[in-house]
Amino acid sequence: MSRAMAASRYGTNGLEETTMRKVLLLCLFSAIGGAAFAQDSWQNDVSWAMQDTGPADCDGAYAQLGVDACLGKGNRACVMEHAVKAAEEGKCQRAFRLTSMTQCHNGAAQARLLAAGFKTICDYIRN
Fold this sequence. Notes:
By secondary structure, this protein is mostly helical. It has seven helices and no strands. It has helices at 3-10, 14-51, 59-64, 76-88, 92-101, 107-116, 118-126. Helix 2 (14-51) packs across helix 4 and helix 5 packs across helix 7. The longest helix has 38 residues, at 14-51. The termini are far apart.
């Protein structure tokens, strides 16, 4: 359909332009909102792990990090108790390794934790 035909069919191009503007604004707000959520998503990952008692992933990592007693006894939530204790003792690298291990099934979550950095994660779980 030509522009002239569309203009005569819809009366003006104003409706089409208004719709496009609304779509563009919606996309812009979605992108901004998504970026704001992404900034906090590592915190969501940590909070989830602190409460999750579901089936364990990466069972071998529990033994490697010395928290194999957590298997079947809280799993991720138990590991996060150890991570908090390590953070409180100033052992931030261990706290980070434990926190990261709780996300061994989720590479994107591990990447978010890594991007936040071990000190940020340590400070967050210590408080």
